[in-house]
Amino acid sequence: MTIHLPESLESSILEAVHSGKFASLDDAMTTAARLLLEKLQQGQAEAKEPAVSEEAAASAPKPIWEVAAEIRRSVPKEEWAKVPPDGAAQHRPLPFNGSTGG
After folding, report:
1. Scanning 46, 58, 71, 82, which has its CA 20 to 30 A from the CA of 27?
2. Which pLDDT score, from 0 to 100, does residue 100 have?
3. Is the torsion defined by CA of 20, 25, 29, 34 positive or negative?
4. Is the per-residue pLDDT at 63 higher than 70?
5. What is the CA radius of gyration of the chain?
6. Which structural domain range is residue 40 located in?
7. Residue 28 near residue 22, CB atoms below 8 Å
8. Does residue 99 belong to any structural domain of this protein?
């Protein structure tokens, strides 16, 4: 296999080989390829299972029924007792003027 690298990258790899960090150019390229494959595998695993921090989960929007339940629990029982038992039937109806608009 023939690999063409940018000159600056090639010189850095050759320098690492000449300094003794790798036994040969093949050894350096094998290590580089192995690291690349590990990084690609980690990226695929992260894409499949996104990590959700507790802070992000806490700041996620709540479903509307949970919001309504929290509001309902915050209203004192005395106030709920004032609500008409038949809903809006005891409220004065709005006058109808025959228009179809709002």
Report:
1. 46
2. 56
3. negative
4. yes
5. 34
6. 7-48
7. yes
8. no
